Amino acid sequence: MEERQGQYYISSPPESEFNRQVNRKAGITDLKQRAHGSRSWIKIDQDGNSEIVTLDKATIMRHCSLPSRDLRLLDPKFIYPSSILGREMAIVVNLEQIRCIITADEVILMNSLDGTVGRYRSQLCNRLRREKSDDLPFEFRALELALELTCTSLDAQVNELELEIYPVLDELASSISTLLLERVRRFKGHLLALTQRVQKVRDEIEHLMDDDGDMAEMCLTEKRRRSDASLLNDCFQTRSSTGRVISKSAPNSPERSVSGLQMLPRTFSGIANSSKYGSSTGSSDNEERIQPLEMLLEAYFIVIDNTLNTLSSLKEYIDDTEDFLNIKLGNIQNLLIKFEMLLTAATLVAAIFAAVTGVFGMNFETSVFDYPSGFNWVLVITGIACVALYFALLFYFRYKKVLPE
């Protein structure tokens, strides 16, 4: 029996070590699968057709030319604040529940069971099918809907919180209770978190409006058109240069060389003037290109700023209610202090009366007891003196402004 137990005891550690190694390898394999695993996405094209596809990070990175840190913003495992990033071939949007990648001809939306994602998909498809002749490019229309749903969702949450908190604050102002104070504390925490979310969206829109370079990066359709035009121009110049016949046997005449030297200053001045004109034209063209996006961002900046002002007003109302409660509690405290002082003065007077009556109630010889009503007169005189002392103390407290009015 002892031998079997000893053999079992010796054979158990290798088995547990083997299980630990297997579990460790399985955990590492699971982590690798999570890191390189595929996710479900919703792809929406320019015609409003949508389909659910399964893509991994490497495919999205190659297709949209995005770094891995941008895709990490869209990972639902991580909680990042709202952000809008303009890249070379895509716009990375992380606005509350809407996490998507917008290119010049399609939207790759993170698939989720959230209602906001479903509304974004359905509304974007309907708008793309109905409004095919819209002046805005595809990426601006997709970004506009993301901003619209985000601002609408935040505004609805603010209105819901406003409807819940105002009756509680009004009730708390009339009657203070622990239950109402606890509800206000929870509402205040919710208000703070909601304010931070709205503030982040507002700051992101304001940052884009202040930076023309970021807005220019988000003009994907225009960048693609310019890229295609430049490629066609390069191909045309290449063909024209290869088709040109240059004679190397013809000597250069002195007159031609002199005239060429005289033409150099004019050529350089013409190049300088054309460069200046090109830079001014480029800047004006850039402003004209980003003007629709700037107007779009400005419209939703006004909406989200109004939501933030509503939250600020609600916070000020809570602060005013707290100040009112502090004033009310201060008044109650003053009344308690007044009552305590009056009670202390009355206790002092009653103690004096009790001491005098106790002294005269003892069994000792005095001329007061020679009269039948002598002890009664002692009680009357002591009572009158105590009352007079009490009113004297009240007058003194009022004179020294110790008691509140």
Automatic annotation (TrEMBL):
<keyword id="KW-0472">Membrane</keyword>
<dbReference type="GO" id="GO:0016020">
    <property type="term" value="C:membrane"/>
</dbReference>
<keyword id="KW-0406">Ion transport</keyword>
<feature type="transmembrane region" description="Helical">
    <location>
        <begin position="374"/>
        <end position="397"/>
    </location>
</feature>
<protein>
    <recommendedName>
        <fullName>Magnesium transporter</fullName>
    </recommendedName>
</protein>
<comment type="function">
    <text>Magnesium transporter that may mediate the influx of magnesium.</text>
</comment>
<dbReference type="Pfam" id="PF22099">
    <property type="entry name" value="MRS2-like"/>
</dbReference>
<dbReference type="InterPro" id="IPR045863">
    <property type="entry name" value="CorA_TM1_TM2"/>
</dbReference>
<keyword id="KW-1133">Transmembrane helix</keyword>
<feature type="transmembrane region" description="Helical">
    <location>
        <begin position="341"/>
        <end position="362"/>
    </location>
</feature>
<keyword id="KW-0812">Transmembrane</keyword>
<keyword id="KW-0813">Transport</keyword>
<dbReference type="InterPro" id="IPR039204">
    <property type="entry name" value="MRS2-like"/>
</dbReference>
<keyword id="KW-0460">Magnesium</keyword>
<dbReference type="GO" id="GO:0015095">
    <property type="term" value="F:magnesium ion transmembrane transporter activity"/>
</dbReference>
<comment type="similarity">
    <text>Belongs to the CorA metal ion transporter (MIT) (TC 1.A.35.5) family.</text>
</comment>
